Amino acid sequence: MEQYYNIHNLVKIIVQTNNIYLLEELNYTLRYFKTEDSLLSYDIEIKDISHFSLPQEHLIISDKFFGFKNGFFSKDDEYAIIMDGEKITLFEKENSIAINELIELLLLKKGYTFIHGAGISYNGDGVIFPSPPNTGKTTLMSKLRKKDSVNFFGDDYIILKEDGSMLSYPMDFSIHDYHFKFFEELKRAPEGKQIKRIFYEKFLVDIVRHFPIRRTLKKIARFFNYEFLKGGEYLKVEAKRLMGAKKVGKMAKVKYSVCLNKYEGRDLRIESVDPETIIKEIIGTLQSEWYKSLPALHFLASFGLVDLTESFKKTNDILRNNFKDVKFYRVLLPSLMEHQERFRQLDEFLETKIFRELKNGK
Fold this sequence. Notes:
Elements: E1 2-7, E2 11-16, H1 20-30, E3 34-35, E4 44-48, E5 59-60, E6 65-68, E7 71-74, E8 79-84, E9 87-92, H2 99-109, E10 112-122, E11 125-130, H3 137-144, E12 150-154, E13 157-161, E14 165-167, E15 173-175, H4 190-195, H5 198-208, H6 213-223, E16 235-237, H7 239-243, E17 251-263, E18 269-272, H8 275-289, H9 294-302, H10 308-322, E19 327-334, H11 339-359
Parallel strand pairs: 2-4, 4-9, 11-17, 17-19
Antiparallel strand pairs: 1-2, 1-3, 5-6, 6-7, 7-8, 8-9, 10-11, 10-12, 10-13, 13-14, 14-17, 15-16, 18-19
Helix pairs in contact: 8-10
């Protein structure tokens, strides 16, 4: 089977695999960019690990990792990466490495970078919400989607360009049980029944989380066509289904950055923040999101295939250029405030401050 993805004509990916579960995992991230058009050229090629042969001349880094001239092989996780000029080839059995991390290497070369956070446009002007995980980005998007002037750019990642613009990166939404009150249409859909299994599956997953049997259980579930919830905690739902295809934006100039953070308190707090602080936090959050596959970058760097110092510098430069004309706020979301009230106050701040200023052309 072959599948193609075209990310804003910046990064093109071809997947050649007989593993439908690998395709499912990739679709969670790249579904929006799937194309039926065959790609004459591509930047990333993904193949089954069975097509990889360890070169005879290789270095034994440990009993788990093997290096060679233009890549390395992870024996335990069963994946290999080969870098040939501007092209990356990934061989894997399962979704063992964050594909976004490899895409980032290619984006940086073209003056773009990912940030971890949500993004919208309001009347065509961009507003980004850089934030760590579990700060309520999905809940916020569920509210903003109802506004006529808002277009959706991403719930977990967006792409920033050094000229001050942002590009959409609408991955599938991670829907937890508490999100059903914000996406009521899902209650009447198959997901409504699936989420009811969450308690039992989470209990089972928590027991076997750190044991090899977890993979065996997932394989058994797949054999019986049982959709085992990822981590026993959430479902993946296509962004276009929740936002509406016409509400997904493509490009906008960034005018505001509203950083979301939780804190141990009872009152929602809003404060100004300088861009240099935000740049450091954005880079740190991005790297922490990819911590499981960071060893891959380190091994590539150890063979001179990736320059991590240059990558961090390039990310910093792109963000600094992008943020030249951006106004910054930090919203501290109180963990001791009721969930609905917290986001009612956040929505009120956006409406009376950010959106009003954008309407007035400030």
